[in-house]
Write a structure and sequence with these properties.
The chain is α/β, with parallel strands linked by helices. The protein has 30 helices and 21 strands. A hairpin with a 2-residue loop joins strand 1 and strand 2. Keywords: Membrane, Translocase, Transmembrane, Transmembrane helix.
């Protein structure tokens, strides 16, 4: 069917800019050239992860020990190096993904200058240029349409509206949209950073790391310790100098070296060096496991994110549905006119058939379309097309939206057409009606785009979006887990509601987003009361996510179109389908590579394992920080020699915290996420740490009183801390499974080896503490273990009460 009209005479066309006009605009910088980067430069990333107060303290201690020739005591620096490298790598990955974000990927732009068409690079377009638009082109800059010959533009990737839009002179054509039919010309109004697509991309590309309670909690503790270390470090250093007779005497005798080593041991013990590394390893292992299941994690802490989510916002197209429309059925009305199947086949086979009409090609195949005697092409404004054939079925035929072809009769439930259309539309099907008239389309009808007289409904043709087979099961899972669902789409609210009902969402009808309030508080209330929203703009999607967050929700957003990108970036966790736009995948934290919605429960399970296990191991690290801080303060105030060398603390760090924590962080754990990770961890770590610090202080005082030497005292302190550390590990590992028992047993055997193998005892400077000190060690260790058990008893009751309240 040929619907082309004669092109306007060349004299009537706008000739476009002259070479001088173009040069003037280029000189003024009014071109479409646009180079955007994330707000986070490489230097900013390195500075944020390396040049911190925390790292400054650690690296300074590391450097001092190297200068003093005590490299054996500088092993703690390796963890700090690893932390900085992992932090930089994570942020470089996020920056690289954002830098690849591009909405405009048209290889060439077509412009009219001095009356002639030319193809140029998109960045060569200048303000006031005349764009020549044809089917398949991507609009390179914002422009106002000045000529239109059946021009239709698909703005779905920008606005979420699935239907192509007819463009008439005076209408706006947005950069990034696609011409799907017809041709025309448009005058450029905004270029470069001011254009819609680049403004959209610019907002999406603003750098931000995914919200992570685990990471934020650890960073908060590191921040606290960074400020505490300064004054406590000075207190300890002064005390160690006083132990050797004062500052002057210590420098004169050379004992200042040992005083500095003792001070560094106290300072570095206060910092939970391995916790950041352990957290990153747990995230990385989780991401690797998900990658094997076709789930790409763009940022490691996103593994944790979905376990914390309590509201998930779903875009309909591409998430609940496969993003494609398919033919459903034909329901004949009354006595069908002969040849209606051949007519449907011709509508589907027409060269200018839209996406819906093309779905008719498979059920109604034709060798070649019937020749048209008269033809009125489809228009998204009219929502119908009409044809009379030169040879074939007689009369004229119309295919279009029922209410646009037959008016109120299409919604009148008392008439056959209205009843059928209403019933089918309520199920979420897209309905078209095929009408027939005995009269053929006249030239006047075609010119005025007028429906033929005497039109009668012949059949109702239905189409259905392909719902993802795993959508209903996945939504049922989230419902069982107490996760709220919000379906938001740019499509008609009724259609969206019907699709939502088909996947198990209990909703009567959708809320039209054009009626959403401007006030954020009122918007939040609407979101609490409604589950399905239609006609939602990209900006509204972002506002809706923010409104939910402002009401205390942790929000996940899924989608595949560019129109979802801002909301996905703003959400606590953004999830994109691999079939979606590159822009959307670039800003998403998680990408479902095979597009299977059913992977999300697996992500939840992995996130829960990460959070629950890190909460357990964090209590080990925070307990160490607590007792190290307590020791530094007590020994500083009491002016006692610090009872450890840095290398001796490495024993307890490695065998009672670091190594077992690595394995514990990777064990299966299905514990459901509950907010308050840091508070629960510290409620055990602080009292346990205080008890250990007091126990070691009392041991040092008692050992000194009975004449135990400094090397024997250090060995005794190391034994006490090692045994108590193993006990803390055991307490926090309960219930003890076979794997946990093997881990704890291996660590105990390792400690026995350190204290008995000559090479190890020599390196760590461990000696026989003597009989008197041995009895003292047994008594202090036994009392400390008993006190730890009491702390754990009350801690478990506190946690149970807190979880019950939640």
């Amino acid at each position: 069917m040929d619907a082309s009209a004669d092109a306007p005479a060349a004299a009537a066309l706008d000739p476009g800019l002259s070479a001088a006009d173009v040069a003037e605009r280029v000189a003024a910088g009014r071109t479409n050239a646009h180079t955007a980067d994330t707000s986070r430069s490489v230097w900013n990333i390195v500075r944020a992860n390396v040049f911190t107060l925390f790292n400054g303290i650690v690296f300074a201690c590391f450097f001092v020990l190297f200068v003093l020739g005590r490299w054996q005591d500088a092993l703690f620096g390796l963890a700090a190096f690893a932390n900085s490298i992992i932090g930089c790598v994570q942020e470089f990955r996020a920056k690289r993904a954002l830098d690849r974000l591009a909405l405009l990927n048209a290889p060439r732009a077509r412009v009219r200058r001095e009356g002639a068409e030319a193809e140029i690079a998109p960045e060569g377009v200048v303000i006031d240029d005349i764009l020549v638009l044809r089917a398949g082109d991507q609009v390179p800059a914002d422009a106002d349409v000045i000529e239109s010959r059946g021009l239709q533009i698909d703005e779905s990737m920008l606005t979420g509206e699935s239907d192509a839009v007819d463009k008439q002179p005076g209408d706006e054509a947005l950069s990034g949209s696609i011409v799907v039919a017809g041709e025309g010309a448009a005058r450029v109004t905004r270029v470069g950073a001011d254009s819609y697509a680049n403004r959209f991309a610019g907002e999406a590309k603003r750098f931000s790391l995914v919200a992570s309670e685990v990471r934020n909690s650890v960073n908060r503790v590191l921040k606290w310790m960074s400020w505490i270390i300064g004054p406590v470090g000075l207190l300890v250093c002064n005390a160690q100098m006083m132990v050797f007779g004062g500052w002057a005497a210590a420098f004169e005798s050379g004992d200042w070296v040992q005083a500095i080593v003792n001070s560094i041991a106290a300072i570095t013990a206060m910092i939970p060096l391995g916790l950041v590394l352990m957290t990153s390893i747990a995230f990385a292992v989780g991401a690797a496991k998900l990658a094997s299941k076709q789930v790409l994690v763009n940022e490691l802490p996103a593994v944790e994110g979905l376990a914390r989510v309590d509201v998930i916002c779903l875009d309909k197209t591409g998430t609940l549905t496969a993003g494609e429309i398919a033919f459903d059925a034909v329901r004949e009305l009354g006595e069908a006119a002969p040849g209606h199947e051949a007519v449907l086949g011709s509508f589907g086979a027409a060269p200018d058939a839209n996406a819906t009409a093309r779905c008719l090609r498979e059920p109604f195949p034709v060798a070649e379309p019937l020749a048209a005697a008269a033809y009125i092409p489809f228009s998204s404004a009219r929502k119908w097309s009409a044809v009379s054939f030169a040879a074939g079925p007689a009369g004229s035929w119309v295919l279009g939206a029922p209410e646009m072809v037959f008016g109120d009769a299409a919604t009148d439930a008392t008439a056959e057409l209205g009843r059928v259309v209403t019933e089918l539309a309520s199920t979420g099907r897209r309905t078209l009606v095929l009408g027939h008239a005995d009269a053929t389309i006249t030239a006047e009808d075609a010119e005025e785009e007028r429906l033929p007289a005497g039109l009668v409904a012949v059949a109702v043709v239905t189409f259905q979006e392909q719902v993802r087979p795993d959508a209903a099961q996945t939504l049922e899972y989230f419902g069982a887990q107490g996760v709220g669902i919000r379906v938001i789409s740019g499509d008609n609210p009724r259609t969206v509601a019907a699709i939502a009902r088909s996947v198990g969402v209990d909703v009567a009808e959708g809320f039209d987003a054009r009626r959403l309030p401007e006030d954020d508080d009122e918007l939040g209330e609407v979101l609490e009361q409604n589950l399905v929203f239609g006609r939602v703009t990209p900006e509204q999607k972002k506002r809706m996510v923010i409104a939910l967050q402002s009401r205390g929700h942790t929000v996940a957003m899924t989608g595949d179109g560019v129109n979802d990108a801002l909301a996905i970036k703003t959400a606590d966790l953004g999830i994109a389908m691999n079939s979606g736009a590159a822009a959307t995948k670039a800003v998403a934290r998680i990408v479902l590579l095979d597009g299977r919605f059913s992977h999300l429960p697996e992500v939840v399970a992995e996130g829960r394992q990460v959070i629950a296990n890190i909460e357990r191991v964090s209590m080990l690290f925070f307990t160490k920080t607590a007792y190290a801080t307590g020791l530094a303060v007590l020994f500083g105030l009491l002016v006692l020699p610090f009872p450890f060398l840095p290398r001796q603390l490495s024993i307890t760090d490695g065998l009672t915290i670091g190594i077992p924590a690595f394995f514990l962080a990777l064990l299966p754990n299905a514990q459901r996420y509950v907010p308050g990770f840091l508070k629960r961890s510290l409620s055990f770590a602080i009292p346990a740490g205080v008890i250990i610090a007091i126990a070691l202080t009392l041991y040092s005082l008692a050992a000194t009183a009975i004449g135990v030497g400094i090397e024997e005292l250090r060995t005794g302190s190391t034994i006490i801390l090692a045994v108590v550390g193993i006990w803390v590990l055991t307490v926090l590992s309960r219930p003890i499974t076979r794997i946990k028992g093997l881990i704890i047993g291996a660590m105990f055997i390792g400690l026995v080896g350190v204290f008995t193998i000559p090479l190890a005892t020599e390196f760590f400077q461990l000696v026989d503490p003597g009989e008197d000190a041995a009895w003292l060690i047994v008594i202090v260790t036994g009392l400390t273990i008993g006190a730890i058990e009491i702390v754990r008893f009350f801690h478990r009751r506190y946690v149970a009460k807190a979880l019950a309240a939640v």
